[in-house]
TrEMBL record:
Its cofactor is pyridoxal 5'-phosphate. This is Aminotransferase. Belongs to the class-I pyridoxal-phosphate-dependent aminotransferase family. The lineage of its organism: Bacteria, Pseudomonadati, Pseudomonadota, Alphaproteobacteria, Rhodobacterales. It comes from the Bacteria. Keywords: Aminotransferase, Transferase. It holds the Pfam family Aminotran_1_2. InterPro entries: Aminotransferase_I/II_large, NHTrfase_class1_PyrdxlP-BS, PyrdxlP-dep_Trfase, PyrdxlP-dep_Trfase_major. Its EC number is 2.6.1.-. Coiled coil: none annotated. GO terms for molecular function: transaminase activity.
Length: 394
């Protein structure tokens, strides 16, 4: 008889592939050499000077309660309500914002507030590999629905087939990890119409959780539409860890869509703080909340990131790789030569280059490159990619 809970075991099983990869992915390196680690979205250069300055400034106490218990601080919420209203063209108010430990914390908060045991949440495949483990930990059911083959757009017919009377949330991640696709306003409007009709059929609203941590990382002047602009029953999660390339600083938020009916907004506002307390006081640390106005003004160098995308994408396509050209995020997604992602990533690892196999995204023939490595790392990795493609042909 196991001593642990069934839901904890189910959550562990959902994330096991990722943890196994994380603990062993450098094992195939020759003599432990590392030419380029292009797996996770981690920084490989020193942080933004403005970020360091903000942390120093706001870590210096200005009054006796500087490091007292914090929930969602009013100043931070006010900054974000104004910024979101301007960015998305919607009327957010401070009460709409819950400060969280990154987008991860915001996603967990949304699931906890909306899902009862046995409720279903539709999640995209390929997609972020932590949705399922958070859902299982809450005794909810992840329903994995494939994106459209080749284009990786939302497959509305597949979503419609997956909806049941237990469906409570549809996760929409745009710009999308791992493919970099940004969903069009037209496709999101079609999704809104579908969910409106299905909600009426079921007799309760189906929510969209709009997962937007890469919202400000877009290329070639690409636009962005949040589902909150089109569908009233939308919650938005966001993280500063992406746009600042500082995932170890855990600050983000969950925002209630302003078009939601007032009665429903009031329920969610009243519930958010107590839910975060129940989850283990999952509010960002005090200095990070004080720094929100400074963080809002900072960003990694998007043109430099686009240049890395162009260099890597152009080289791989030149050698015959089948790649998706990302419109946003800092990832590059493609088909593994030979159709075996694990074998392909091992060939790269033998040359000191590490990428993520698509098995972590339930796509065993694909792979993901993180472009957060330096330009020098990107350049140094290219011979390994050329050689690995040649080996696959042989």
């Amino acid at each position: 008889m196991s001593i642990i809970s069934h839901h904890a075991r189910a959550a562990a099983d959902e994330i096991k592939t990722v943890f196994d990869f994380f603990s062993s992915y450098r094992a195939d390196a020759a003599d432990g050499q590392v030419v380029a680690d292009l797996t996770f979205g981690n920084p490989h250069e020193m942080p933004l000077p403005g970020l360091v300055a903000a942390l120093k400034t706001h870590s210096e106490p200005q009054r006796t309660d500087w490091f007292a218990y914090k929930t969602s601080e009013e100043d931070a919420r006010g900054v974000l309500a104004r910024a979101l209203s301007q960015e998305l063209g919607l009327g957010f108010v401070p009460e709409d914002i819950a400060m969280t430990t990154g987008a991860f914390g915001a996603i967990a908060l949304a699931f906890a507030m909306l899902l009862d045991p046995g409720d279903e949440c539709i999640i995209p495949v390929p997609g972020w590999f932590c949705y399922g483990t958070v859902l299982r930990n809450g005794n909810a059911v992840p329903v994995k629905v494939p994106l459209a083959e080749d284009t990786f757009d939302l497959d509305l017919a597949a979503i419609e087939r997956a909806i049941t009377p237990r469906t409570r949330i549809v996760v929409v991640n745009t710009p999308h990890n791992p493919t970099g696709i940004i969903y069009s306003r037209e496709r999101l409007a079609e999704l809104a119409a579908l969910l409106t009709a299905k909600s009426a059929e079921i007799g309760r609203p189906i929510f969209i959780l709009s997962d937007e941590p890469y919202r400000r990382i877009r290329f070639d002047g690409a636009g962005f539409t949040s589902p909150a602009e089109l569908y009233p029953w939308t919650l938005i999660d966001y993280s500063y860890g992406k746009v600042l390339l500082a995932p170890g600083l855990r600050i983000g938020y969950l925002a209630i869509g302003p078009l939601m009916p007032e009665e429903a907004k009031a329920e969610l506002r009243a519930l958010a703080t107590s839910t975060q307390v129940a989850q283990g006081w999952t509010f960002p640390d005090a200095p990070l909340q004080y720094a929100v106005a400074d963080l809002e003004a900072l960003s990694i160098d998007i043109p430099a990131l686009q240049a890395k995308r162009d260099r890597m994408h152009g080289a791989l396509e030149q050698w015959g790789y089948r790649m998706t050209r990302p419109a946003g995020t800092f990832y590059l997604w493609g088909r593994a030569p030979g159709g075996d992602a694990v074998a392909f990533t091992r060939r790269l690892a033998e040359r000191g280059v590490y990428v993520m196999p698509g098995t972590l995204f339930e796509r065993p023939a694909d792979f993901r490159i993180s472009l957060t490595g330096s330009a020098e790392m990107i350049e140094a990795s290219l011979p390994a990619f050329e050689a690995a493609k040649g080996n696959a042909r042989a």
